[in-house]
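Encoded backbone
================
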Amino acid sequence: MSGKIAAKLAELKIELPQAAAPVANYVPVVLTGNQAFVAGQVTVWNGERKFIGKLGKEYTADEGQQAARLCGLNILAQLQAALGDLDRVKRVVKLGVFVNSMAEFSEQPKVANGVSDLMVEVFGDAGKHARSAVGVNVLPLNVAVEVDAIVEFA
């Protein structure tokens, strides 16, 4: 990895995990035209599942932000693998944030800030994006958060 974004990651002391292989019948990233569609990334660090459980039960909103950030690191790893260089990212267009939460938990937007803040840290203004943040009954493998992304690239 080299370039401006690699230097930014080093400056921020951000390490990317290995891009995870799909666990079912899909591909991690689809490149079409000048857009990359990144499949939902969960709370896994180099094959080890993290943040298993629900927000409002096992985890607080602050811990949920850490989980969402981990999903964002996995998005960056998938983009690095698909594009070869994160400097090719022109804009983070949209993030979909799914939060495994108890019925009474309503801080999904705060949880989603974990991944949103990461994208702005890494890409600056190009990291500012549209976003959905929704609470769901359950996520695959009972992870706390899953995030998918649409990114414009050069």
